[in-house]
Amino acid sequence: MGMRAAETARPAETASPAEAGPVRPKRDREATRRRILAAARDLFGEHGYADVTVRMIAGAAEANTALVNRYFGSKAALFGEVLSGESALRAVIAGDPDGLARRLAEHYVRHLDQRETTVVTRMIDRSSGDPEVRQIMLTYLEEVIVQPIAAQLDGPDARARALLASALIMGGGPIRRLLGVHALEDADPADLADRLTAMFTAALTPGGGVQPGM
């Protein structure tokens, strides 16, 4: 009777950690995720999207392919996350709406001063011919640039105006790389920023910012 009562009161046994499988601490998971992103960034920037495999990324990150897929779902999703995470445009767009045109202009000028291409530029240059990357770039353009800019704008046709400003941002890169940064190295950065501010202001203002009779 006493033995039976003791058995009844005894808490149910739970599986040992070994039986339940290893539980990775949260900090370890975050560190692994950062390693995967860093490895993917470097490999995509060096080789381009098509020539990089999940196995290559996993090896460089000292992880396994199942872990890469578990954290990111696919190579395409990983490319998109690297692209989004490396972009400085989120911080440039955020802030006072009245200063948006100037911030975009100064961001453009800062990139003119760079003698070496950024990770994002290398990733895009070496991957743009891949059909899968086109959809990733459309998502990046929409989520990182167009929607955040449109959210800053008042008045009609906010999305159309955001798209026009986005065309200035994204279209300038290929032209700069075609001509080379030396084509504008003698220009005064302050003057360039002023001119670009006027261009972005015209793109973002309802009606194009053009006054009647001009």
Layout of secondary structure:
Elements: H1 2-9, H2 17-20, H3 26-47, H4 54-60, H5 65-72, H6 75-86, H7 89-93, H8 100-113, H9 119-127, H10 131-152, H11 158-179, H12 189-204
Helix pairs in contact: 3-4, 3-6, 3-9, 4-5, 6-10, 8-12, 10-11
Provide a concise account of the structure shown.
This protein is mostly helical. It contains twelve helices and no strands.
Describe the protein's architecture and organization.
The longest helix is centred in the N-terminal third of the chain and has 22 residues, at about 25-45. The protein is mainly alpha-helical. Helices cover about 70% and strands about 0% of the residues. It is built from twelve helices and no strands. The chain has helices spanning about 1-10, 15-20, 25-45, 55-60, 65-70, 75-85, 90-95, 100-115, 120-125, 130-150, 160-180, 190-205. The radius of gyration is 25 Å and the shape is elongated. Helix 4 (about 55-60) crosses helix 5 (about 65-70), helix 6 (about 75-85) runs parallel beside helix 10 (about 130-150) and helix 10 (about 130-150) packs across helix 11.
